[in-house]
What we know:
By secondary structure, the chain is mainly α.
Amino acid sequence: MPWTVLELKNLGHSMKPFEIDCGGFSGTPLGTASGSSRNGLRRAPALGLALFLLLSGCQLTEQKEEQVPTSPQTPEQLDSLAASELPVEPSLSAVIEYLEAGKTDAAKEMITVLADAAPASQLLARLLRQIDAPIEELLPGPYRRIRVADGESLSLIAGRELGDPLKFYALARLNDIEVPSRIAVGTEIRVPASPAREEADGPVDDAQTEITASEIESVAEYLVRSGQGNQARRMLIDRMQADDVPESTRSMLVALTVERATTLRAAGEAERALAIIDETLSIVSGPSRPPELSEIRGRVQSDLLVRTAERLRERNEFLQAHDTALQAVQSDPSSSRANTLVGEIRSDLVASLHNQALVAWRDRDVDLAIRTWESLLDAVPDFEPAQVYLERARRLRARLAQP
């Protein structure tokens, strides 16, 4: 899904750029495209904690990893980050793209430009440190060796092995990889035997550890671009707990939820899709629901009701199955599956109940015949044979009741 590059806003803090010597932020292992809680995104007493909270929410709800795209195999795909395609407007997302493409000097120049407007940005400081700090300080040994599997990239490996997908550049330096986005399947690389956990030097003013909405959106944009949309969605959900969340954050969260729910629905995981939709709705709903969320929720709910109706039909519980199928159509009137199922169950219901009523009628069990035809007509009021027989049965019962 394409995303517009988001400009960083002026953070308004006075501090010399990159005075603080801090490590990479920790987070949940993240997935990525190949080839190439809620408790705390606002403030934290130390740099490490602030940036740990930035990504730590990514595993709170959905534990199952989303499918990772396969690694590109063609030269054309490997050249997707050619210099001619790289962004020129300064942004945090653009810095990450330059680092992915191995354009280190251009990335440093852009960091300098951004730091003039955001001198207290810890994300910029940490990216710069990945470029300039000795690699043995960033990723100290001992090391172990792993092979890059199909669908993996340095970002995915950094998230899994180091707890931070943005440490892909440090991992590239450790392994003398000039272009991080061009890691080939089967490549053997070194990773620290134990993830490095760098600590902040001491207490830091809360204002200096503020992570802005613009920065979070830029990181989310990077995660989406690298195939980690679900992790980006978790991060945005945490950000929604802050005050004065901009509409752009809300819109990005809604779009990512729709995308994730659509993927889960296509995979037949309607329950999980419904859960993430309702989670997002509980956060972003105001006077009215976002229409795109309401639409996908109706489709997912219809899928679940269809599944229930089919199970009831298999047990010959046609009345309940018919009612459930009708609810499925109400949830998603455009669902051909639900509409077809209503017609099929209607035929089953008519055949079953009408036959039961006729058997009771022949056996002179008038009351049972009447109850059965009434149940049939409650579900299918336009079935004319049942109307005729019910009227006859009621007249007979009236005559039998006379003294």
